[in-house]
Write a structure and sequence with these properties.
This protein is of the alpha/beta class and 264 residues long. The chain contains ten helices and twelve strands. The strands form three sheets. Strands 2, 3, 4, 7, 8 and 9 form a six-stranded parallel sheet that branches. Strands 1, 10, 11 and 12 form a four-stranded mixed sheet that branches. Strands 5-6 form a two-stranded parallel ribbon. The longest helix has 19 residues. The protein starts with 7 loop residues before the first helix and ends with a strand.
């Protein structure tokens, strides 16, 4: 007996074919559109399609602050701006460090309140996780954060839709430094600089609590500069409106023309 295993994409394709067949039988195209929209998978931004070589280095802050001083000093040395995603728990423990990051001109992003497995939560719980951190940062800095990175990179439609309803764009990464695995500084540098997805519009994932991040950062930025890359915040890297996100999570700008909207 043969056993056939279908991939998720195959299942979806056969499901749509089934719906089309049913539609032909009952004459209801609107039903097809409604069901197709209902099962559409929402995607976060992993990277941005750009014609320049701007990239965003990002740091997740959930556990400690040991590497933060050298990270901030290195960024200042290179005149580079970055985005720091903070949890509410981290803000509670290191409020003065949060102020230092912001006063240095870097962007603050939301990384949830308690760093849970947010993909297992309902809409109300997701909202609470995001907004508790939001309120803590606003109380200290007087700002409204606009980018959210889910803990562990976990997301589903509930996470993304709820985040957007709260005024956040959900941001992942296209280049993972794997610094959290405590590789050597040399391995972190090589992983980022020579990554196959290192291109203009890339979003790099690093952590302030990883063992070798601070010692790797100076040479990492220097090597990227040698390749012509420049550094900005996620907020300045991404498009705010008139964009689409393709199946790989790449954000693509749309061009508005008189006859309609076209992807650039």
């Amino acid at each position: 007996m043969k056993i056939y295993v279908l991939k998720g994409s195959d299942i979806m394709r056969y499901f749509i074919i089934f719906l089309i067949t049913v539609s032909a039988a009952i004459g209801s195209k609107d039903y097809i559109v409604e069901v197709s929209n209902a099962v559409r998978r929402e995607l976060p931004v992993y990277c941005v399609e750009r014609s320049d070589k701007n990239i965003a280095i990002t740091f997740d802050n959930a556990w400690d602050n040991k590497e933060l001083p050298i990270i901030l000093d290195t960024l200042k040395k290179h005149g580079a701006k970055a985005t720091f995603y903070v949890t509410g728990g981290w803000v509670d423990r290191y409020p003065e460090d949060l102020k230092k990051i912001y006063e240095a001109g870097h962007q603050i992003g939301n990384h949830s309140n308690k760093h849970p497995h947010i993909g297992k939560m309902n809409k109300s719980q997701v909202k609470d996780e995001i907004m508790e951190c939001h309120h803590k940062v606003k109380e200290l800095l007087g700002i409204d954060m606009v980018v959210f990175r889910p803990p562990y990179g976990e997301y589903n439609n509930t996470v993304i839709k709820t985040s957007r309803e709260l005024g956040y764009e959900v941001i992942q990464w296209s280049v993972d430094s794997l610094d959290w695995m405590d590789y050597s500084a040399a391995e972190i540098i090589n992983k980022v600089v020579n990554h196959k997805k290192m291109t203009g519009g890339a979003i790099v994932l690093m952590h302030t609590g990883a063992k070798y991040t601070g010692s790797a950062l100076d040479e990492l930025i220097s090597k990227l500069k040698e390749k012509g890359y420049t550094f900005t915040t996620v907020e300045d890297l991404i498009y705010k409106d008139n964009f689409t996100i393709n199946h790989e999570g790449k954000q693509i700008k749309k061009v508005i023309k008189d006859e309609g909207v076209q992807v650039e």
